[in-house]
Amino acid sequence: METNRKRIRRDFAPLNVAVAIACDTAYSPLMQVYNGSDGEFEPNRLLSPTIIRPIITAYAADGSWPHPSANSQLAEMKWFVNGKEITTLSSWSGLYEIDTVGSTRGSISVLKNLLPNSEVSLHFEARLVDNRLGVTLPIKTDPVVLSTVDQAEDTYGMSIGESRNIRYNPLIDLLDLHEYKVAHGIASSESGAYDGNQYIRTIPVEMYAGESRMTSGYTVKVYRITDINTQVEITSSDYEFISIAPSQIVIDLRLIEKADYLIKGFVNGKEQAKCQFSVKRVRPAFRCSPTNESSILPMQTERYDEVLVESEGRNIPCPGRALKITWFTDTATKTNVQHNEGDTTLFDLRKAGVKDEYPDDWADVYVKATHKDVHCIASDGSDIYTDESGNILIFN
Amino acid sequence: MKYILASKDKCQELGIKISGHITKDSRVVLNEKEVAFSPVLSGLTIEEKANMVDGVIYNTASELLNIINS
User: Fold this and answer.
1) How far apart are CA A150 and CA A210, in angstroms?
2) CATH code for the domain in which residue A168 is found
3) Position A2 in a domain
């Protein structure tokens, strides 16, 4: 007689998915210039297409998802122009191509020149196929704005010397790492590393009158875009802005989760030009593992361990700066025993439940880790706390 | 803006990525900005840099579009 059948499956961890979007063509950026004097677009996208790439990364905690870059697993890919699917718009017919191959699958090549002084919003939607679990996950990027500026001689323009989509990854911030080391007595030098990913970000601002760069005679103000119709001017109590000057704006990326800003240029008090940029804190996938592989000695009462964190192919020093890492142990007598938080641990073996005989003289040591939230200003609700030099204290 | 109709082979030899660019037979279209700022093209002028990829320079888009579309 055959028994009742019971189907068993492999058990996989669900995917953590991160979605970003970027312009891959610095030589053909999102903003085009129309030169009215000769009727030319610069660049002309029919000759230099603008390529916009959705960046999809996925991670499974059990390591069962082989490659973080997941563009190749996209299905049902659709691009939208001002919220309408691009395939339904006759004005875009033949003026775009969508890449279907490999790590750039989903990228769109835009061959359309927009009318002067116009802009459109593009975003991408798809489904990510997870064959391990037999499911598909929805993917939707933030929008990017394609625009064309009319560069007539009597018009003003503004540009910034930074990406209009600033992304901050605290795990690889060498300046933050250096300051952490100095604060903990691990390093002594006061100068940090400015490698382009540091939290202090200087955004050069250039204002043009026609084709001439202005060196004076204008002011700038920065606004936070709170919704499509509302802009709130940045003031001295918006601590993420370190300084705002006509030639440059300096921001502290540690204090920003996700925000859109608008820089406006004023000549004789009248708004003449503007430029938008956005900031987003990224949280890439990472793996943690305890590093102490030595056995427990007979008379040992305490155990030290240190976590190794790897993200995007590199080891992350002092990961507790950006990750909340909590240590746990399981033993034969106690499970899920929580110890301290941090890069290292030193715990009492007895309290953890380790005993002296073979069946119960062991411990499984592990960590649970998550990305920390964005930094906050230290305040009691009315007063802002500072150090002895007047520097505002922040924490996360 | 100027455009350069360059040799695909020369670009690939020098490590200039040509995927995503408009091509015509064995030639590829580069724009003035990417030639001027390319770290692999030496020379002081756009003409000298274009020469390294057997490039022909067109002063306007419309000139080159006529050739690409022919």
Assistant:
1) 10
2) 2.60.40.10
3) no
The verdict on A161 and A146 lying in the same domain is no
Enclosing domain of residue A46? 7-150
Selection from A185-194, A378-387, B3-12 with the highest mean pLDDT: B3-12
Q: Is B57 helix (H, G, I), strand (E, B) or coil?
A: strand
From the centroid of its chain, how far is CA A138? 19
Helix H or strand E encompassing B56:
strand B56-58
Domain endpoint, select from A254, A282, A310: A282
Tokens of A103: 């790590």
Does one domain contain both A254 and A323? no
**How many domains, chain A?**
3
Distance from CA of A97 to the nearest CA of B (A): 10
pLDDT, one tens digit per residue, over A152-189 is 656 788 988 888 889 999 999 988 998 888 888 888 76
Co-location of A128 and A38 in the same domain: yes
Contacts of A24 in chain B (CB under 8 A): 20
Name, in order, each residue with C-beta under 8 angstroms of A25's C-beta and a sequence gap of 6 or more.
A48, A49, A50, A51, B20
Residue % of chain A over a pLDDT of 90? 62
List of chain B residues whose C-beta atoms are within 8 Å of the C-beta of residue A52: none
Query: What residue type is A154 in one-letter code?
Result: D
Asked if A377 and A394 touch (Cβ cutoff 8 Å), the reply is: yes
Q: Say if residue A165 is in the same domain as residue A102.
A: no
Alpha carbon of A389: minimum distance to chain B alpha carbons (Å): 43
**Would you kindly state where each structural domain of chain B is located, as residue ranges?**
3-68
Euclidean distance between the first and the last CA atom of chain A, given in angstroms as a whole number: 63
Interface residue A41 vs chain B (CB under 8 A):
yes
Mean pLDDT value across chain A: 90
Across the interface, which of B30, B60, B65 has its CB nearest the CB of A46? B65
Residues in chain A: 396
Check whether A228 has a pLDDT greater than 80.
no
Nearest CA to A140 out of A127, A125, A153, A157 is that of A125
Higher pLDDT, A155 or B45: B45
Cα–Cα distance measured from residue A293 to residue A308, given in angstroms and rounded to the nearest whole number: 12
Euclidean distance between CA atoms A261 and A223, whole angstroms: 6
